[in-house]
Amino acid sequence: MSAIPFDFSGSVAIVTGGSSGIGEITALMLAKAGADVVIAGRKEAPLETAAENISAASGRRCIAIPADVREQDQAQQLVERTVEQCGRIDVVINNAGKGYHAPLRTMSAEVWQNDIALNLNAAFYCAQAALPHLIASGRGAVVNISSLAGINGTMGVGAYSSAKAGLQMLTRVAAAEWGPRGVRVNCVAPGMIATEKAQAGWAKVGFDAQGACEAFPLRRPGRPEEVAAAVLFLASEAASYITGETLTVAGGPQLKGMIDV
């Protein structure tokens, strides 16, 4: 994507899960739009590499802060370190997430709890910790990254689907509670997105992603940049009167009819 049609000059953004995939692309696009960016993740080495690449490509400051945001104290420390180093927080992108495959009939409590912790609890901890700074910003925005699985559900990832559905409701309730204080909260729900990790996983199991997309109106997987563009829109002043919404980025509705159209 050659042009970034949003202006985040003077803003500071936190992006969790920022060392790869949608998170890294979102952080890069925010930086190219003028923001200073803090990226968080559990593994320090890839996080540092991503931060260096983002700074080099954008000319903006990108800081890597290792944090396991499943832990409330680490989410709080992430916010505190961001304010110490950058002075403010205007945008929080809750992108950290992953789903573990297991049928519900055999799913362990550990898998269930980890999926809820990573895909739901972490977003709550980060947003809550950042809230005073988002209020002080005067234009604070939170964008949560859900999934089409949180809308339709996906068999085999029941905990992930449940957590992502919960994240969408957290978005609505937080938007209602925090809107009077000037903070907007929205959500993006990606469908089949061809990140590097996704493509590697498809190749490993022989999954025909392009064939599966024949059921999509747009007939292809999405690109990480297309999800990031939706995130930037919702975080920007272009969406200043939008809050509590979930925007699906999934190639269109998969509808069946009774006639050939």
Q: What is the radius of gyration computed over CA atoms, rounded to a whole number of angstroms?
A: 18 Å
CATH superfamily: NAD(P)-binding Rossmann-like Domain
Q: Which secondary-structure class do the elements indicate?
A: alpha/beta
Q: What is the total domain count?
A: 1
Strand content: 5-15%
Question: How do the strands of the widest beta sheet line up side by side?
Answer: 3-2-1-4-5-6-7
Total strands: the figure is: 7
The helix count comes to 9
- Per CATH, the architecture is 3-Layer(aba) Sandwich
Tell me about the biggest sheet?
Answer: 7 strands, parallel
CATH class: Alpha Beta
The end-to-end span amounts to: 32 Å
CATH topology: Rossmann fold
- Give the averaged pLDDT, no decimals: 94
| H/E series | EHEHEHEHEHHEHHHE
Low-pLDDT runs = none
Spatial shape? globular
